[in-house]
Amino acid sequence: MTTRFDPNFTTFMEGEFLGGVTVSEPGGVLGPGNLVIDPTKPFEITATWHVFGHLVPIWLAALKSASPSWVVSAYAESVGPGPEKMVATTNVPIGVVTGSHDVTFSATLTVPAGTLAEENPGNPNVSGLYKIVLTTFLNSPFGLPGYDVMGYAEGPIIKVENPV
Q: What is the pTM (predicted TM-score) of this model?
Protein backbone atom coordinates (compact mmCIF):
# COMPACT_ATOMS: atom_id res chain seq x y z
CA MET A 1 0.00 0.00 0.00
CA THR A 2 1.45 3.34 -1.05
CA THR A 3 0.70 6.30 1.22
CA ARG A 4 1.93 9.83 1.62
CA PHE A 5 1.17 12.96 3.63
CA ASP A 6 2.16 16.52 2.84
CA PRO A 7 3.51 18.49 4.61
CA ASN A 8 5.98 16.03 6.01
CA PHE A 9 8.23 17.95 8.40
CA THR A 10 9.91 15.30 10.54
CA THR A 11 9.02 15.76 14.24
CA PHE A 12 7.03 18.95 13.47
CA MET A 13 4.09 17.87 11.27
CA GLU A 14 3.69 14.43 9.77
CA GLY A 15 0.83 12.09 8.90
CA GLU A 16 0.25 8.47 8.08
CA PHE A 17 -2.56 6.03 7.44
CA LEU A 18 -3.08 3.32 10.04
CA GLY A 19 -4.00 -0.14 8.80
CA GLY A 20 -4.53 0.89 5.19
CA VAL A 21 -7.73 1.34 3.23
CA THR A 22 -10.31 -1.42 3.49
CA VAL A 23 -13.27 -2.24 1.27
CA SER A 24 -16.25 -4.11 2.68
CA GLU A 25 -19.72 -5.10 1.67
CA PRO A 26 -21.91 -4.71 4.78
CA GLY A 27 -23.88 -7.85 5.49
CA GLY A 28 -21.90 -9.78 2.92
CA VAL A 29 -22.31 -13.54 3.02
CA LEU A 30 -18.56 -14.11 3.17
CA GLY A 31 -18.00 -11.61 5.99
CA PRO A 32 -17.34 -7.90 6.02
CA GLY A 33 -14.21 -7.82 3.84
CA ASN A 34 -14.45 -8.82 0.23
CA LEU A 35 -12.52 -7.96 -2.92
CA VAL A 36 -15.42 -9.06 -5.14
CA ILE A 37 -18.16 -6.44 -4.96
CA ASP A 38 -21.77 -6.96 -6.03
CA PRO A 39 -22.69 -3.98 -8.26
CA THR A 40 -26.32 -4.15 -7.08
CA LYS A 41 -25.35 -3.41 -3.46
CA PRO A 42 -23.61 -0.48 -1.77
CA PHE A 43 -20.15 -1.04 -0.33
CA GLU A 44 -17.95 0.83 2.13
CA ILE A 45 -14.40 2.18 2.02
CA THR A 46 -12.81 2.79 5.42
CA ALA A 47 -9.55 4.39 6.52
CA THR A 48 -7.92 5.71 9.68
CA TRP A 49 -5.10 8.26 9.68
CA HIS A 50 -3.27 10.39 12.16
CA VAL A 51 -1.25 13.59 12.12
CA PHE A 52 1.53 13.96 14.64
CA GLY A 53 4.36 16.27 15.62
CA HIS A 54 5.08 19.38 17.65
CA LEU A 55 3.14 21.74 15.37
CA VAL A 56 -0.06 19.65 15.11
CA PRO A 57 -2.16 21.55 17.69
CA ILE A 58 -1.21 24.94 16.24
CA TRP A 59 -1.59 23.84 12.61
CA LEU A 60 -4.99 22.19 13.14
CA ALA A 61 -6.29 25.10 15.21
CA ALA A 62 -5.29 27.57 12.47
CA LEU A 63 -6.86 25.52 9.66
CA LYS A 64 -10.00 24.74 11.65
CA SER A 65 -11.01 28.41 11.56
CA ALA A 66 -11.46 28.24 7.76
CA SER A 67 -11.77 24.50 7.06
CA PRO A 68 -13.45 22.80 10.03
CA SER A 69 -13.41 19.38 8.32
CA TRP A 70 -11.18 17.04 6.41
CA VAL A 71 -12.57 16.37 2.92
CA VAL A 72 -12.21 12.63 2.42
CA SER A 73 -12.70 11.33 -1.11
CA ALA A 74 -12.51 7.87 -2.65
CA TYR A 75 -11.65 7.25 -6.26
CA ALA A 76 -11.88 4.15 -8.43
CA GLU A 77 -9.43 3.81 -11.28
CA SER A 78 -10.12 1.07 -13.76
CA VAL A 79 -7.44 -1.52 -14.36
CA GLY A 80 -7.79 -1.97 -18.07
CA PRO A 81 -10.61 -0.29 -19.95
CA GLY A 82 -13.35 1.42 -17.98
CA PRO A 83 -14.26 4.48 -15.96
CA GLU A 84 -12.06 6.45 -13.59
CA LYS A 85 -14.05 8.54 -11.15
CA MET A 86 -14.72 9.77 -7.66
CA VAL A 87 -17.07 7.24 -6.07
CA ALA A 88 -17.75 8.81 -2.65
CA THR A 89 -16.84 11.77 -0.48
CA THR A 90 -17.50 12.83 3.10
CA ASN A 91 -16.38 15.42 5.63
CA VAL A 92 -14.67 14.49 8.90
CA PRO A 93 -14.68 17.29 11.48
CA ILE A 94 -11.34 18.31 12.98
CA GLY A 95 -13.12 18.39 16.34
CA VAL A 96 -11.81 19.96 19.49
CA VAL A 97 -8.20 21.00 19.09
CA THR A 98 -6.29 20.42 22.31
CA GLY A 99 -2.60 20.29 23.08
CA SER A 100 -2.32 16.79 21.63
CA HIS A 101 0.63 16.23 19.32
CA ASP A 102 -0.94 13.08 17.84
CA VAL A 103 -4.52 13.26 16.56
CA THR A 104 -6.33 10.32 14.92
CA PHE A 105 -9.21 10.52 12.46
CA SER A 106 -11.26 7.90 10.62
CA ALA A 107 -13.83 7.83 7.86
CA THR A 108 -16.22 5.36 6.31
CA LEU A 109 -17.51 6.27 2.87
CA THR A 110 -20.50 4.51 1.35
CA VAL A 111 -20.38 3.87 -2.39
CA PRO A 112 -23.93 3.61 -3.77
CA ALA A 113 -25.08 0.51 -5.64
CA GLY A 114 -24.58 0.78 -9.39
CA THR A 115 -21.62 3.18 -9.16
CA LEU A 116 -19.10 0.83 -10.79
CA ALA A 117 -19.73 -1.33 -13.84
CA GLU A 118 -18.95 -5.01 -13.87
CA GLU A 119 -17.10 -6.80 -16.62
CA ASN A 120 -19.20 -7.96 -19.52
CA PRO A 121 -17.27 -10.56 -21.55
CA GLY A 122 -18.91 -9.31 -24.75
CA ASN A 123 -17.90 -5.69 -24.07
CA PRO A 124 -14.16 -4.98 -24.33
CA ASN A 125 -14.65 -1.43 -22.94
CA VAL A 126 -15.14 -2.32 -19.26
CA SER A 127 -12.80 -4.57 -17.27
CA GLY A 128 -14.77 -4.54 -14.00
CA LEU A 129 -11.46 -4.33 -12.13
CA TYR A 130 -10.72 -1.16 -10.08
CA LYS A 131 -7.94 0.19 -7.89
CA ILE A 132 -9.22 2.23 -4.94
CA VAL A 133 -7.43 5.43 -3.83
CA LEU A 134 -8.49 7.50 -0.82
CA THR A 135 -7.49 11.12 -0.18
CA THR A 136 -7.75 13.31 2.92
CA PHE A 137 -7.53 17.09 2.50
CA LEU A 138 -7.56 20.18 4.72
CA ASN A 139 -7.79 23.40 2.72
CA SER A 140 -5.79 26.36 3.98
CA PRO A 141 -6.91 29.97 3.54
CA PHE A 142 -3.33 31.12 4.09
CA GLY A 143 -1.01 32.00 1.20
CA LEU A 144 2.55 31.00 0.55
CA PRO A 145 4.35 28.79 1.29
CA GLY A 146 1.15 26.72 1.37
CA TYR A 147 -0.38 25.24 4.52
CA ASP A 148 -2.79 22.72 2.98
CA VAL A 149 -2.61 19.22 4.40
CA MET A 150 -3.17 16.31 2.03
CA GLY A 151 -2.69 12.59 2.35
CA TYR A 152 -3.47 9.65 0.12
CA ALA A 153 -3.48 5.91 0.39
CA GLU A 154 -3.83 3.31 -2.30
CA GLY A 155 -6.38 0.70 -1.36
CA PRO A 156 -7.04 -2.75 -2.72
CA ILE A 157 -7.88 -3.77 -6.25
CA ILE A 158 -11.49 -4.93 -6.38
CA LYS A 159 -13.53 -6.89 -8.92
CA VAL A 160 -17.12 -5.82 -9.54
CA GLU A 161 -19.18 -8.91 -10.34
CA ASN A 162 -22.82 -9.79 -9.85
CA PRO A 163 -22.91 -13.14 -8.02
CA VAL A 164 -25.93 -14.32 -10.02
A: 0.90
